[in-house]
Write a structure and sequence with these properties.
Helix content: over 70%
Structural class: mainly alpha
Radius of gyration: 13 Å
Order of helices and strands: HHHHHHH
Strand content: under 5%
């Protein structure tokens, strides 16, 4: 997340995260889910921060990443307020992806 905030065009970093999240998200990698748990607060807050300040393409990717974080639902319950914001923004988005 630190590098994403420092570069001028973070699309490549966000695309890499998108690919990683989609790969892990199938439920086959329980150990990786556990690795993401301590990172969730900073990750979600960072993605929402990027969403609030970036250009439209960056905003859409960051919202998608918020909603596809590789974690069990029970782990995400404490982050419901952030995730609800991401859902609302996703519903308002123009892109259907």
């Amino acid at each position: 997340m630190k590098l994403i905030k420092e570069v001028e065009h973070p699309t490549n970093y966000l695309s890499l995260l998108r690919f990683l999240f989609r790969s892990i998200g199938g439920g086959k990698f329980e150990l990786l889910y556990k690795e993401f748990l301590p990172l969730l607060p900073e990750l979600l807050q960072g993605l929402m921060h990027i969403q609030a300040r970036g250009p439209q393409s960056i905003r859409e990717i960051s919202i998608e990443l918020c909603l596809t974080v590789p974690a069990r639902l029970s782990s995400l319950l404490q982050f419901i307020p952030l995730l609800v914001q991401a859902v609302v923004l996703a519903l308002k988005a123009k892109d259907e992806q």
